[in-house]
Amino acid sequence: MYTRNILQLGCLIALLITGCKSSFLDKYPLDQPAEDNFWKSEDDLQLALTGCYASLSVNQSQSVTEGFGAFTMYWDGISDNAYPRSTSFNNIALGQLEPTTGGIVNDWYNLNYRAIASCNYFLANADRVPVDAATLQQYKAEVHFLRAYFYFQLANIYGGVIITLQPEGLDYARDLQKSPQAEVMEQVLNDLDTAIAHLPDAPYSGRAVKASAQGLKARVLLYNDRFREAAATAKAVIDGGLFHLADEYYSLFVKPGQNNNPEIIFSARYLLPNMFSTLDYQMGWDQWERIQPIKNLVDAFECTDGKPITESPLYDTAHPYENRDPRLRKTVYVPGDPWKYSPDGIFDPAKDGNNRTGFLVKKYLDTSRAPTNYSTRSDQDFVLLRYADILLMYAEAQNETSGPDQGVYDAVNAVRARQGINMPPLPAGLSQTEMRQRIRRERRVEFALEGTRYFDLLRWRIAKETLTAIINPGGEPRKFTDRNYLWPFPQSEVDVYGIEQNPGY
Amino acid sequence: MKNLISICCTWLLLLPCWLQAAVWQHHNPPAQQTPVTGLVKDSKGQPLPGVTVTLANGDGQTGTQTDAEGSFRISAPANGTLQFSFIGYKTVSMPLNGRRQLEVTLETAATELTDVVVVGYGTQKKVNLTGAVVTATAEELNKRVVTNPASLLQGRLPGLNVVESTGEPGNEGVSLRVRGVGTFSGAGNDPLVIIDGIPGNLNAINPNDIATVSVLKDAASAAIYGARAANGVILVTTKKGGKEGLHLEYSYNLGITSATRLPKLITNSVEYMELYNKALAHSGQAPAYPDEFIDQYRNATDKVRYPDVNWLDIVFRTVYTQNHYLSVSGGKGGTSYNVGLGYIDQPGTMMGFDFKKYTLQFNLNSEVNRRLTFGANLNFNYSDRHYPRQGSEDQFLATLSQGPMYGPIVPDGSGHYTYRGDPYVYHNKNPVAIADHVQAVEREYYVQGSLFATVKLLEGLTWETRGGFNFRFEKIKDFRPVLPLYDWFTGEYATDLDVGEKGLQVDDGNSIYPVIYTQLTYEKKLGPHQLKVLGGAQEEYYKEEDLGGYRRDFPGNDHRELDAAGTDGQRSSGTAFEWALRSFYGRLNYDYRDKYLFEANMRYDGSSRFAGDTRWGFFPSFSAGWRLAQEPFLQSAAWLNDLKLRASWGKLGNQNIGNYPYQNVLKTGTNYPMDNSAVYPGAQRQTLVDEDIRWETTRVLDIGLDFTVLNNRLTLNADWYDKKTYDILRTAQVPGWLGLNGPVINGGTMRNTGWEFGIKYQDQMGDLSYGAGINFQAFKNELTKFGAREIGSNVIREEGHPYNTYYLYEVAGIFQSEEEIRNAPAQPFDPKPGDLRFRDVNGDKVINASDRTYADGAYPSFTYSLNLNAAYKHFDLTAFFYGVEGQKFYVTGWGIEPFTQSTPPTEEWRNAWTPENPGASLPAIYVSGYGPISGMPSTFLLRDASFLRLKNVQLGYSLQAGWLQRAGISALRIYFAGDNLFTITNYPSLDPERGSSSTRFVNYPQNRIYSFGARVTF
User: Fold this and answer.
1) Of B262, B342, B344, which Cα lies nearest the Cα of B310?
2) How far is B254 from chain A (nearest CA, A)?
3) Contact A54 B659 (CB under 8 A)
4) Domain locations in chain A?
5) CATH topology of domain A39-58+78-199+461-505
6) What is the complex's ipTM, to 2 decimals?
7) Which of A452, B64, B147, B863 has its CA 20 to 30 A from that of A272?
8) 3-state secondary structure at position B737
């Protein structure tokens, strides 16, 4: 009796353990698509395209944000515009720009290549998807544009880098050398030409359009001192007529003004409720104040008569912020300003434990969200290219090509006279050099805190003299040496791959 | 909920009373006493002096000892029973039956030698062990009264290193390491824990339910667990049923608990502000506090409005920990049972922390007939943990960050919480408001249950099958209310409390983990040859599912469920994963005349984490032992009880990495608003995959010695080992330009060599028995193969060095003058006199990244413990010391660096460097973040955390008196105990016993406990 029961039990257990199918050990991910089953439908194509764009707006949930997407403003922290309350950026400002500095030194390299990898993956596989040729061509053109954008970011900081245009695997090339900066720029321009040829000639509403690629191309050419081509490319956007200056300067920086704004040509995008950044509280709230504009920037804004504060009779040291270029008070909070981010309601640097410079960021803050706290979600798109930049790039390139002709004046004056700003036109009869200085100042105030100043200083080769004149709020002088015009590659890339380090590091 | 708890408590307290009624017995009055004399000898006929002779069932007071000739004299009733006990001998009970003269022979007890220990899938006589196994019993472990069983193992078992990372109730973060850190892979270093035969969770059981713990340290003993055993195996058995009848035991403990060590901060408001201004000045910044403000405090008569607050006194407190435990055990016929019921209530010494744990253990064993035994083990655990949502580190640093010039509640009598009473510098959030109102609640239900059947098929052939499961359900509710804060001086509304993102986050997680194994054991003795063979198969499967939801805008703070809030900005998340293992295992034991011992183990494991071709791994081990004491040439050595040499070699596996590491998948969630109306889902290929990965393997060589002498008074166990882990499953180092995460590959080798020993001495002198034990362990870790070095912010991973060796700038002193600075190598920042001088390691006259250098202290040089015990009549005393030598921690921020987020400096900063005090050991007082001192990770913040502490001391009194028996109580024990009463250390301010996962100095301190307890046996 027992023996029989035991035998039955034994059979049951034997069946359980050995009788099960071998599939007992085959387990597959339950929430992620497998690569083998991908690239089958237009949905897949759309998923992968979105994945390429996603690299622009590193989401707040990801740990790396400083210097990217909504936090592109950090780059102003190592320029003469602002002071960064960020260890990695502040170390760089103080001259600790080493292969082992970490933070942005690693992130800039790795994240741009990550973005490039998703572009390469898209371009290598998109043709496998059965979809109409026009759609496919447009999608691919967008990805070519994005890849150009990311390579351009690398080349600006590191000079020559390794170029890869295919999805990489375990069998990646062990002996690939970095290409000279000029070759990288050539690759960028090739991608941009492909993009220009196939992108829709349409206003911008979130995805790259023809003008986005043209504008970026103008910037690439300008950064490489190819002024004649740069002027022509910028002119093509102006002549295209699809874009013009915004009616309200501040609408460029907050929603809903940013939506379908005729001035914005390309941006890193966010959308509430779920695709958001923490921009408002990181910049505005008295507990954070991550980027703090410095007096050097404030002093760069002219008085309303179009003269610098050193010359203008309108400048009153007792009321230094009156009679100034209206863009100043749209860019920076000055002491005494009504300020909803602290309980007092008034910005007083002496009573603000975190404020070190006496000024606060205003540009990009959506004041309707103040007072802020950790629940505050921000959806401001960070503008990466806008029509004012096209105008000033045209002016700069044209001035370098043929001196300050009427076209140069028209372009700069258009920006100065923009609605609500109404700064007087530049005086006639400026020399080419004087015009160059005017354009540089105009770029600085127009694009202050938009993340472009540091790159401008690099390409004009004036970073060293400009930055070493700045003293940090702690009394420490900024440092910048000749080697810093190119950044070091992260030490890990030297250790793991043996990439040739940039000179001086 | 509170009501329910108090009902439970009452019930727990009353239960023994009415149960005792059930076992009430009638007792006879004491009989007439008559004198009895006698002689006690050992088995060789030699008289034994010092043997304790007592009257069994007496009041415990009547007793004597044999004299130098082994004779004794005692008064006893004619029908009484005498009990003879002596250390190292079996206790003998002898009924008098009217006799007045006795001759008694005591036999060697050799308890150590005949002990049976639990090993993988079976038991083994301790003398016949060839692998490195250490054991501890419930009695040894439960000297300390703690709520987490893992903590009890500390210092008890040589080779097992136990670190209690914090004193936070229910979240002690106990890390268990068997013989060092074995690997740097994601597979981790946690040993496998087996409870009653199936993988389980040590935290989920009540310490009182534990019967024995064995730690399998070497490959020989652990290889039968193959794939899971690389970090060692901890086997726990729970208490089984006992004798016939019903046995009831109740114990209670009350612990008066406070923090062991807290920083001594400068809490005089005026001194704080003046020092702050001074530190700012040294750090190149403008003073923060105007003189008028400081003067308000200096001249204040109103100490309520202008106080000197020590926030640590407010946030840290003395609390009462309560521990109730009731067990019912017994049996009838072939069936026995044990039921344990426990309740632990442990508030935190830091405000806002609270932990309650309810446990039920049920064990049943039934010999159905002479062939079939059937049984069940069931463990149920419910725990309820409250904690400030950002955890103890955040709560601690928020406390330290406060200035002494204001308190947590505004002084206007409104009871409002303070926003801040200091407009000049930034302080972290009000920790008292957080503790009172922003607690997250974690509730966990955990069940482990298994059934087993053992069948004796033939003589010597046994078939055992066990099937069971773990089920866990966990719910975390984290409600972040809107709480207004008010200005200290004006009493007006200032802002809302910083609670992170307001709203309610709810997370549910559950997992199911069924395990089944079946095995055959065959034992045969053929003359001098003894053979034992075991073979079995096992399957296990794990699936976890998680679901989370969040809503933001609640109309008030009263309704704390998701549906109470609007849907704007809501979020949800959910995922699941699974893995499976299938295994075959076996063991062969052979011994010849109990003298030559041999054992072989093997396990063949298949894991779902690897692809078909590399899925299966084979893990063999071999070990041998030679009991020299059994050899004829040592038989005559009477002092020698046992001497055994052991050696073993074997391989173990590890597969505890991701769940699908070999499969190519795309990362979803890389979304983007492609237009103005919607966020589109996106996907990226982010990670490379190596489809050929296989098991990570650990090879262990162990040589050991067991030694018992002097009538079993002195025992020694010592082991030396060499443990090498290779094919480590780690993320490959790939160049950044690939733009992809490196694949998980097999690469890298790590080695630990070390030794450990335990010595125990136990003796008796008359009524006094006493003993001492020392455990010692030391190991060296080395990364033998790694690839390119990796440098973290303060550690380096490089071949030839211990894993994660500290890698820091070295402080060479304090700059005394401008001239010294000018002549020194160029420092990275611009120092002033009073700042740190860094050593120019490579001699190039410039201090930069290449001057960082190795510093030791990543692992302790050794850890040790000392146990002392003594018993005299009804009293017993034990003391347990535990020490760690050579461990260092790199610690930063609040509490160690002055004015980190405005944290008041500790008192030692009064003696910081000044031009008048050039010999100071601390640099000039500065504000954290000041480049020349804290701009770079340096040895300034690497602190020696060696310590020796009195971990536990206990004084007990046991009673078996007649008057108790008449009250139905067969035994009573009361005790006083102390935990962490004193510590010897050079570590600054806080408890040196801490985890190393965070470099923040703040760490929830350990608990100092004065406890009182009682155990009643009915």
Assistant:
1) B262
2) 41
3) no
4) 39-58+78-199+461-505
5) 1.25.40
6) 0.94
7) A452
8) helix
